[in-house]
Amino acid sequence: MLDPLAAFVKQRRRLLRLSQPDLAAKAGVGLRFVRELEQGKSTLRLDKVNAVLHLFGHEVGPVPVLSSPEPE
Questions:
Q1: pTM of the complete model beyond 0.85
Q2: Angle, to 10 degrees, between the axis of helix 46-54 and the axis of helix 20-27?
Q3: Three-class SS of residue 8?
Q4: For residues 3 and 10, is the Cβ–Cβ distance under 8 A?
């Protein structure tokens, strides 16, 4: 399953008809970072993720995690 953040960035980039190098330049991050973000790398700098997301009018924030109930 594709990482939801990776899928979101890739989809929005394509909707805006931006190449990965174009997105990297507009966000002020490296091309390698954009590639790793779109591949779902689990360890990325949050400030750089937000720099990319800001181009789409979004930012990272706390989201509830679905987890199984704890045993009593």
A1: no
A2: 100
A3: helix
A4: no
17 dihedral zone (left: phi>0; alpha: psi -120 to 50; beta) = left
Give per-residue pLDDT as tens, 1-19: 469 999 999 999 999 999 9
CB atoms within 10 A of CB 50: 14
CA 67 – CA 57 distance, rounded (Å): 29
Mean per-residue pLDDT over the chain, rounded: 91
Closest residue by Cα to residue 22 from 37, 34, 36 = 34
Contact (CB, 8 A) for 30 and 59: no
- Is residue 30's pLDDT more than 70? yes
CB 6 within 8 A of CB 24: no
